[in-house]
Amino acid sequence: MEELREDHDDGSVARVAAIDIAKASGMVCLRVPHDTIEGRRIQQVWTVASTTNAILELGDRLVCQGVQRVVMEATGSYWRPFFYLLESRGLECWLVNARDVKNVPGRPKTDKLDAVWLAKLAERGMVRASFVPPKPVRQLRDLTRTRTVFVQERTRHKHRVDKVLQDAQIKLSGVVSDLFGMSGRAMLDALVAGERNPRTLAGLAKGNLVKKKAALAEALTGQFDDHHARLLRVLLSTVDHLTAQIQELDRLIVDLMGRTTAPRDDRGSSPPGHADVTAQHLAERLDAVPGVGQATAQIVLAEIGLDMSRFPTPEHLVSWAKLCPRTIQSGAKNTAGPAGRGNPWLRGALGEAASAAARTDTFLSARYRRIVKRRGHSKALVAVARSLLVITWHLLNEPEASYQELGAEWHHRHLNPARKTRDLVRQLQALGHQVTLAPAA
């Protein structure tokens, strides 16, 4: 029999408020102890408009009631005004996952009942707070996410440019690896300007493409007319506009990271070793990890924050990012369930970094090659992404730590020689060989 000692806080609170949030309003449920009757609680439910003044008035009312915690369900982006304004009033705000507070099946579904149910779960400590970073990290997150969306949109417009060329029987992408490189862009601009001679267009080639002038002239022979030129002009101007916006976002991100330092604790002091460390300095340290570039480091810092006290161990961070399989145990059977969806912005950046690290000659690439043979490409990339996140946790949690490359042969050098010998002998015996081992001279 297992004995458990509950000598820690069970998470229950006496005075709690819960908000079921919609676009234009929020249903508030306040539950506090009765003034005179022990064990009885007073419950109030009312509607609050989602305007600034109404939310601030709600904050003042909750403060006067001595509310210890305000819990709200994550609903799109409508929770942000309630969370930020109530937090500015000094209230402890928790954002919880809608999946964790789903109503009991069979009960009526109304905003009032949802608010009451959420309040009851909160006062009994049966909900978990989601990770909401501090304001500077939230601002950095807004910039990096917007940049990611703009990069994706620019890529879509570049694909549309190739579709216009294909419609005009221009097969330039079959010869030029990058349509928007120096040579490719010069040819596109010449097509828009009215040049139609394939040899003249091929003469704009530079660098290694000079050797492919004959192939370029053949690829540029098509049915490109004024309609295609007008459409191509619009697409190129859109690509240029998005490029300018991305460059501006890059500048804003670097400026904000240079001004963002580690968050301070309740006493107003910085964690040991983090006093003068800025987000830009941390990004430069992450840049030393194989596969992680400056943009990827910025995204990772924006998504997980600068303070790793929120994640006590690397395993906590990996579990939050859903980069580890879910354990399912029933009876004597243990299985690994799906990892889950996690943060798509963080997973996307780590996936790109893992794919880049797999093509290097490093410890991470050796890890990828070991796993891909038995688990496949997708699972191997997830494993490398998990390793990248563990490395990130140590670099952020330990101010003096720096990345040290172990080398692609590290695993083989440190593998148990006896086990390796036994495995090789077993493989040879399975092929029908009789193996006799003799020590080397």
Distance between the termini: 57 Å
Low-confidence stretches: 1-8, 265-273
Question: What does the main sheet amount to?
Answer: 5 strands, mixed
Shape: globular
Instruction: List SSEs in N-to-C order.
Output: EEEHEHEHHHHHHHHHEEHHHHH
Strand order of the largest sheet: 3-2-1-4-5
Work out the strand percent: 5-15%
The secondary structure category is: alpha/beta
Helix content: 40-55%
Give me the Rg, rounded: 29 Å
Give me the count of strands: 7
Q: Could you explain the architecture of this structure?
A:
It is globular and about 95 Å long. The protein is of the alpha/beta class. It contains 16 helices and seven strands.
Task: Sum up the structure in keywords.
441 residues, alpha/beta, 5-stranded mixed sheet, two-stranded antiparallel ribbon, 50% helix, 10% strand, disordered N terminus
Summarize the helices and strands and which ones pair or pack.
Layout: E1 16-21, E2 25-33, E3 41-49, H1 52-64, E4 69-73, H2 79-88, E5 93-96, H3 111-123, H4 135-167, H5 182-193, H6 198-202, H7 213-219, H8 226-259, H9 279-286, H10 294-304, H11 314-320, E6 326-330, E7 333-337, H12 344-357, H13 363-375, H14 377-397, H15 410-414, H16 417-430
Parallel strand pairs: 1-4, 4-5
Antiparallel strand pairs: 1-2, 2-3, 6-7
Helix pairs in contact: 1-2, 4-8, 4-10, 5-8, 9-10, 10-12, 11-14, 12-14, 13-14
Brief rundown of the structure:
It is built from 16 helices and 7 strands. By secondary structure, it is an alpha/beta fold.
